[in-house]
Amino acid sequence: MIAAMLTVYLSGWLITTSIAAIATAVTGAGRRVRPVSRGLLAVGAGAVWPVLVIGAIQFAVIAVLAGSVRVASLNEPELRATDDAQHTDDLVSA
């Protein structure tokens, strides 16, 4: 199990580092940037790729849950967070 996880992590690191190295070479072709800086950026991106994937998954889950709560509140009036008429009265009286 540990060998499989290590293989996945190192494979993702290699892929992400390669993509970041190519992207920095293409976008920074006309600039005077030391190759060492580009290499460090690519290696750093490769090292943190699992954090970015986990963040993207969390964002997707929150978006799906928010959408399902919205649909449920439209179908079930008692699930709405606020009553529109009461909310309007609060705004007018303030």
Descriptive account of the structure:
The protein contains 4 helices and no strands. The protein is an all-alpha fold and 94 residues long. It has 2 domains: 1-47; 50-94, no CATH class. The chain starts with a helix and ends with a helix. The mean pLDDT is 76.
- Average predicted confidence as pLDDT: 76
* Rounded Rg: 24 Å
Measured by DSSP, the beta-strand proportion falls in under 5%
Helix content: over 70%
- Number of structural units classed as domains: 2
Q: Show unreliable segments.
A: none
Number of helices: 4
How is the main sheet built? none
The total count of strands amounts to 0
Keywords:
2 domains, single chain, 81% helix, mainly alpha, 94 residues, 0% strand, 4 helices
Show the helix and strand layout:
Blueprint: H1 2-27, H2 35-47, H3 49-75, H4 84-93
Helix pairs in contact: 1-2
